Amino acid sequence: MKLLNNTKIILLCIIFLFSCEEPSSSDEIWNENDQGGFTPIINSLMPSDNAFAGIDTIQISGDNFSDNLIENHVYFNGISGTIISSSANTINVVPPNLVGDSVKITVSVQGAFTFGKYENLYSLTAAVMDYGPFDQFTDIYSLDLDRQENLLVSMDAAPDAQFWSVNIDKDSSVWSSSLVKASGMKLGPNGSIYFVNYQRFLYRDEEGTPKENSEIFKRLNGNATDLDFDVNGNLYLGGTGSTIDVVDINDEGGLTDGVTESVNLDTLDVISLKVYDQFLYILTTTVSSDQVIYRAPILDDIGSLGDLEIVFDWSTYTNKEASALCITLNESGDLFIGSNWDSQPLTIVQNGVASGFYSSILSEPVNYMAWGNERYLYAISRGEDSRKVLRIDTRMMGSEYYGRP
User: Fold this and answer.
1) How, if at all, do strands 122-125 and 50-52 pair?
2) Which of 37, 65, 299, 328 could form a disulfide with 111 if both were Cys (CB 3.0 to 4.6 A apart)?
3) Are 371 and 399 a contacting pair, CB within 8 Å?
């Protein structure tokens, strides 16, 4: 009896549902007479055929775009770019970090049923690329280049430290073995590598040197972290010893011959050095981690230095949120600062104004830098899970490196 009652209830429900008037929902959702908004039209791009992926702003000129930025969408091979601004006739967009030479660009506008398509294929190139055979298992510390753009990199390898060479075809080989890894290194005029490792010694290696023949060249007045040559061949060295020494590399006498204390920095320790336009630029730190970049004029051909003047106060700029790790300058005297700042691994200072450089695609840290002979800046990024050499196309010429053979 109970089963019969349940069956009746179910039948009544079905009859009720079918007796209801069918709603005219299709007319409310879709109007067959609605032709949509005007189809966006792409007339031209600037730059017209090539841009840096993830970096450059591309201006799209055309028609039927929206003044409301969020109503426009630009796709590069189906991947959305970041729109900076828009009007009815222009869209400014940063492409995604997508590298390719056959990229299709399309624009959609809210309300339009059809995409606008750029008639030509576009090229997006890499502003930053991994360079050489280095990976998370290679312990890399410093680098330099010769005038043929051959790269030399210091590695802490087993069973001994080594210098590796990467030629312009990106073929790599062991250049020499050494006593220690190099916290800072420079190629000298005779083709030797001069390097330091936080100690009171300047080392020198020749190509093909085995570890047992690696040379302690000079004993310094203080510990040395970094070094650089001036136009007269003087080699400046500085570190945690609060002194900057200048070394005459042509003096083949004893360990202390040809080593002169050029300036005493008192409470300042040196992290990085770079010579530019008759000045020695010095990234310094104190025991309280205040970091300031100074410069001192080079007064004569034996490397005497004048008084320090402040170039840039890194700690004030960052509010001590990050540590500066290295510096260099380009041909125009713009200062580049590598750091462990996750939002701005590379900072450029132009006319005293600092800003991030390629921050959207670079990752921290930037530990050590050296220019090639044109517009490429080579950098070591030595993180917890990643160890690599980066080649950064800056579209700027680098400053002169005087020691290169």
Assistant:
1) parallel
2) 37
3) yes
Q: Where are the alpha helices (DSSP H) in 282-374?
A: 314-318
The dihedrals phi and psi of 5, each to the nearest 5 degrees, come to -60, -45
Which residue reads 């010429």 in tokens?
A: 397
The total number of residues shown for the chain amounts to 405
Distance of alpha carbon 103 from alpha carbon 98, whole angstroms: 9
Averaged over successive runs of 10 residues, the pLDDT of the chain (405 residues) comes to: 45 44 46 73 96 98 97 98 98 97 97 95 97 92 97 88 95 93 96 96 94 90 97 96 93 96 94 97 95 98 96 98 98 98 98 97 97 96 93 97 92
392 Cβ neighbours under 8 A, 6+ residues apart: 127, 128, 346, 358, 362, 376, 377, 378, 379
Q: What angle is formed at CA 152 by the lines to CA 149 and CA 156, rounded to 5 degrees?
A: 160
DSSP state at residue 211? G
> What pLDDT was estimated at residue 384?
86
pLDDT score of 300: 96
User: Residue 206 contacts by C-beta under 8 Å, 6 or more apart in sequence?
Assistant: 176, 191, 192
Give the residues across from 92 on adjacent strands. Answer: 59, 85
Q: What secondary structure letter does DSSP report for 36?
A: -
pLDDT at 34: 57
Query: What angle is formed at CA 144 by the lines to CA 141 and CA 149, rounded to 5 degrees?
Result: 135
CA distance 234 to 254: 17
Q: Are 276 and 236 in contact (CB under 8 A)?
A: no
